[in-house]
Design goal:
Blueprint lengths: L7 H4 L1 H18 L8 H36 L8 H24 L1 H11 L16 H4 L6 H5 L4 H15 L11 H4 L5 H7 L17 H5 L25 H18 L3 H9 L2 H18 L13 H6 L1
Helix pairs in contact: 4-5, 4-8, 5-12, 12-13
Bound molecules: zinc ion (2 copies).
Membrane topology: Multi-pass membrane protein
Keywords: Lipid metabolism, Membrane, Oxidoreductase, Transmembrane, Transmembrane helix
Protein name: Fatty acid hydroxylase domain-containing protein
Length: 312
């Protein structure tokens, strides 16, 4: 029987569900007042996972031939099957995941898909299920194309992408402390709690997939500080448990902003600037509307640099 790599996460579903059931039961017994689980939140997360799995299965049909094209015509290396090639594939994909994830927080077009993963204000194993069916549209698959050029066959690329995501399920929990020694090499629950927090000092930090070394190398690492516990969620909160609203709200907001602003530079910023641009724009719009009683869009000065955004 041939193993179908695209179904790897579905095959692991019993393990994931057992962890969620155990964590919810354990927290109900030990910290019932903490409200770490809610039925509505967890059901929304599960619906998002199913939608994403269905979309992904379809998307791979279109994407695998693209990887095959690069593998057949442009591959630079030829690997002997064995541990060396598997380790290189794993490290290279994990690095590309870091790049993808960092871009997803700094480019609104990619954030429009990734925001789904961050819009819950809870943090538990089921939060890992919050994925977007729009990832293939946003272009996540493009980030793995270099692996085909490096000489890895499409099925191996799909498998390693899903193994990386499967590992990340286990860092979505509040049950474990700092795991300091493990954290020198691997992403840990403590590091990923920081990543899901909207406290100023934690925003845009700890992008790791499996290996934490990329954050340390590229200056995006920060420790979880017990005196500043993470507040989960996004800067502009989304008050819904509707999985379709959670999936499409940022796309709607992004295209509405692009249509509303004048000039091609501002339209490009609405689509591709960091999400902080949109938050600053929305805050200024709200301020303008409140003060004047009607919209004064023409009076808005758009933030163009990090410094300008920070003083807004
Ligand atoms: Zn993220
Ligand atoms: Zn996460």
């Amino acid at each position: 029987m041939q193993f179908d790599a695209e179904l790897l996460l579905l095959a692991m579903a019993p393990v994931f569900l057992a962890c969620i059931g155990w964590e919810a039961w354990h927290l109900h017994r030990t910290r019932p007042e903490a409200g770490i689980y809610s039925w509505r939140d967890t059901l929304c997360n599960a619906a998002l996972a199913l939608l994403q799995q269905a979309a992904d299965k379809l998307a791979w049909l279109a994407i695998i031939p693209v990887y095959a094209f690069f593998y057949d015509h442009y591959r630079l290396l030829k690997w002997q099957a064995g541990w060396v090639s598997l380790v290189v594939l794993f490290v290279a994909q994990d690095f590309l995941y870091y790049v993808f994830h960092r871009c997803s927080h700094r480019v609104r077009w990619l954030w429009a898909a990734h925001v789904v993963h961050h819009s819950s204000e809870r943090m538990n194993f089921s939060t890992a299920f919050r994925q977007s069916l729009m990832y293939p549209v946003a272009g996540m698959w493009l980030f793995w194309t270099p692996l085909a050029v490096l000489g890895f066959p499409p099925k191996q690329i799909v498998a390693i992408v899903l193994i990386n995501l499967g590992f990340q399920f286990f860092v979505h929990t509040q049950l474990f402390g700092s795991m300091r020694w493990l954290g020198y090499v691997f992403n840990t629950p403590s590091m990923h709690r920081v990543h899901h927090a909207r406290n100023d000092r934690y925003i845009d930090r700890n992008y790791a997939g499996v290996l934490s070394v990329w954050d340390r190398l590229f200056g995006s690492y920060v420790d979880e500080d017990p005196v500043d516990p993470p507040r989960y969620g996004i800067v502009e909160p989304l008050y819904t448990y509707n999985p379709l609203k959670a999936t499409f709200h940022e796309w709607g907001s992004m295209f509405a902003d692009a249509a509303r602003v004048s000039g091609w530079r501002n339209k490009a910023r609405a689509l591709f600037a960091p999400p902080a641009w949109a938050a600053a724009y929305h805050a200024r719009m709200a301020g303008m509307n409140d003060a004047a009683g009607h919209s004064r869009e023409d009076a808005i000065v758009f933030p163009t640099s990090r410094e300008e955004r920070e003083i807004l």
